[in-house]
Amino acid sequence: MIALRSGLKVVLATQRVDFRTSVHTLSALVSEALRANPYCGDVFVFRSKRMDRVKLLAWDGSGMVLVTKWLHQRHFTWPPIRDGVVHLSATQLAMLLEGLERTRVSPKPAKQPAVVG
């Protein structure tokens, strides 16, 4: 299982992938295109052409984990797409997987204490 712990390194591949690819092909893509070790414990995120699907690839210490999520009513909101990779925090990954827009989510302002007297 992929635990979204603090300090987790999340690498988002900016190029679309064919979602028929297997865990072996994605592992090779991590090694060759992203120049990373697929067995390092980082989470590698891949997007589909239609942007309504995402695949996560991670080594959990005993085996390779491949997770696929698909949104039925909307699309994932991706960070600005550039060539190469984008690094995300565990919080940003959680927001991405929930389908939340990063620009619309901001911390709530602290409530001001009421003035008594």
TrEMBL record:
<dbReference type="InterPro" id="IPR008878">
    <property type="entry name" value="Transposase_IS66_Orf2"/>
</dbReference>
<protein>
    <submittedName>
        <fullName>IS66 family insertion sequence element accessory protein TnpB</fullName>
    </submittedName>
</protein>
<dbReference type="Pfam" id="PF05717">
    <property type="entry name" value="TnpB_IS66"/>
</dbReference>
